[in-house]
Design brief:
Blueprint (H helix, E strand, L loop, with lengths): L4 E5 L5 H11 L5 H10 L4 E6 L2 E11 L3 E9 L8 H12 L5 E6 L1 H9 L2 E12 L14 E3 L5 H12 L4 H10 L5 E5 L2 E10 L4 E8 L2 H14 L5 E6 L5 H7 L3 E11 L11 E3 L7
Parallel strand pairs: 4-5, 10-11
Antiparallel strand pairs: 1-2, 2-3, 3-4, 5-12, 6-11, 6-12, 7-8, 8-9, 9-10, 10-13
């Protein structure tokens, strides 16, 4: 007889197990990423438990109660095909009731499961990675690009919120404070035209989010980020329909790895402005 499976809120003591599950799948998140979820909205951080042992996880962050993002869906390989992922999804969706738009970034394997629960495809993303390049050669410095300071955060948030679909000032602030050297912005005639944030992962430095007025601005920001992080392995997630940006990324040494499918639950009331959203923050953050 199978042991009973139940869902409960994640506790700090669960982080060792959560990190082990993540490591098995080769994901890029760090312990600090898990702690962000627990700090922001612990009621949306769940574990599935069998015989007092956590065997699955899911997280969510709600932005202004307008837009919620589900991520970190992980199930121990020994306990798969027992309906655990569906149990976790049903519980997190229940806890997110009342939020207008709920989204996630699915793998192709997960897409079918989420469709059964009422999720619909919005668009595809491609994950690109680049190995560290140990070279002393650097690109010319772009005079319009500068480092972001914490005092710039309100200006960044003002540009970001309409594009993303909701204010995510706390998450942007977390990314800025934890990896300030990866935060760049581009201004022209005193006007903010775009920004890029980054974060250190366990396997790669993740570039994104990147919001820009147009693709030329986006390329300038990415190019300057590459100058700073030439000696680091990099990862980024970009919309699949970026027909000009993707070949440019490949020319910079990035290799296409896998597809992600951006999905929304039932209705997409707050779609944002996808054409100005060049690199996402990551599948677990949106």
């Amino acid at each position: 007889m199978d042991s009973e499976i139940y869902i409960r809120q994640m506790l700090p003591d669960d982080l060792d197990v959560a990190m082990a599950l993540k490591k098995t799948e080769g994901w890029n998140q760090t312990r600090e990423d898990w702690q962000l979820f627990l700090k922001q909205q612990p009621q949306f951080c769940l574990v599935a438990v069998i015989e007092n042992k956590p065997v699955g996880t899911v997280t969510a962050i709600a932005y202004q109660n307008r837009l919620a993002w589900i991520g970190m869906m992980l199930v121990d390989r020994k306990y798969r095909r027992k309906g655990i992922s569906k149990m976790l999804m049903r519980e997190i969706l229940h806890r997110l009731e009342g939020i207008s738009t709920i989204k996630l970034d699915a793998t192709p394997e997960g897409q079918f499961v989420y469709q059964q629960l009422g999720f619909k495809k919005e668009y595809s993303l491609w994950r690109f990675v680049r190995k560290a390049i140990h070279s002393l050669q650097e690109s010319d410095r772009d005079a319009g690009v500068s480092r972001v300071s914490i005092s710039d955060l309100p200006e960044l948030e003002k540009l970001d919120a309409p594009v993303f679909g909701a204010s995510r000032e706390k998450v942007l602030g977390h990314l800025l404070l934890t990896f300030s050297e990866g935060a760049l912005m581009l201004k022209e005639a005193g006007e903010l035209k775009g920004y890029i944030l980054s974060r250190k992962g366990s396997n790669y430095t993740q570039l994104g989010p990147l919001v820009a007025k147009d693709e030329a601005i986006a390329r300038r920001l990415i190019n300057q980020a590459l100058t700073h992080f030439n000696d680091q392995a990099l990862v980024l997630d970009v919309a699949a329909n970026r027909q000009e940006l993707i070949p440019w990324l490949e020319n910079q040494g990035f290799e296409q790895r896998r597809e992600l499918i951006r999905m929304y639950f039932q209705t997409n009331r707050y779609p944002g402005i996808p054409e100005k959203y060049y690199l996402i923050a990551g599948p677990e953050l949106g």
